[in-house]
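Q: I'm writing up a methods section and want to include an example of the input and output format. Could you take the sequence below and give the corresponding predicted structure tokens, formatted cleanly so I can copy it straight into the document?
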Amino acid sequence: MTTGRSRPPNDFDRATVLEVLGEARGTLVEAKRCLRPRSGLSRSADALICEIDEFALVLTGAEDYFHLKAHGTPTRRS
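A: Here is the clean output for your methods example:
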């Protein structure tokens, strides 16, 4: 019995998925700023953010894919 799928399950544009998930994650983080910290909505937003981070980890192998990277000072050359 066929399921009607014409593509393998992992055949999708990962960059596009990560881009959209990044936008969704940013929107959730922004929305949390207006929510009471221990409210149900805030906890739900946290759960979604965690799931987005987990999905990105599976796709990229990077635990901090959506996190801001620290700016570093270049080392001095002698």
